[in-house]
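User: I'm preparing a small set of examples for a lab meeting where we compare how different chains pack in three dimensions. I only have the primary sequence for this one, and I'd like the structure in token form so I can line it up with the others. Please keep the answer compact; I'll paste it straight into my notes.
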Amino acid sequence: MIDIEILEKSDVEITLILRGVPLEYVNAIRRAAIEEVPTMAIDYVVFYDNTSALSDEIISHRLAMIPLKSELALERYKHPEECRDGALTDGCYTSLYLEAESGPQEELVVYSRDIKPQDDPDIVPVNGEIPILKLGPQQRVVLEAWARLGRGKEHIKWSPATISVLTYIPKVIISADRCTMCGLCAEYCPTKAITIRAGEIVVDESKCTLCRQCVKVCGSEAIDLSWRKDEYKLRIESSGALSPERIVSEAMLQIRKKLVELREQLDKVFSTKGVST
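Assistant: Understood. Below is the structure token output for the 277-residue chain.
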């Protein structure tokens, strides 16, 4: 029986406990969150003027790495497979504009909030306080940027997840018969998963990282440290382009899509060989 528990959740992060799910399935979700879930990012930039100290290439790279809000884009724009030719195909790209100029005696920091959408007001940077470049006195930059949906496996700028981690759920058993209450396990535990309270050993498995320091220092071999079968912790942190729960659900959809495509291809191969499925 599959059981899912939300351990922690915020606007940019979610931690799930998945029980009754094989390791391979959970790891597929972890990888899909990084590589397969599409988001919007700036794909190329046209410069009309740039007298700053930074080259066009450096500014373009910085612009590309700024996360863009993508919740509505998944329904509005064509997916990456339909837009890889680089042409401004209808339904693939949206345009953003940046123009900044400093005064004669002024130094000006250009931020992500200065990037203005031209076509779609919903495709904007997730954070307006990201510095892009600094203009010296009487310097100017004018550019047009084009953004499209892409996947993290194409370039990390399209990955919606800054962190996607799968960890085991520890299982700590301390033998009362062999334990001498020396306290070394609590002393050497770096996360304080093992503590001594009122003369008793208290174990908080949620803090355990399976580092095995407690096992190494226990001279009486009273500690049995392992992990729970088919029970895993999945932590995903979002760049802000998508909500963390949307990343998880979209990752599942991408896995399902691949399985459907695999089944269709297998059916074609088997049908040519006269094998029924």
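A couple of notes for your slides: Residues 39-156 form a domain with the RNA Polymerase Alpha Subunit; Chain A, domain 2 fold (CATH 2.170.120.12). The longest helix spans residues 244-272.

User: Perfect, thanks.
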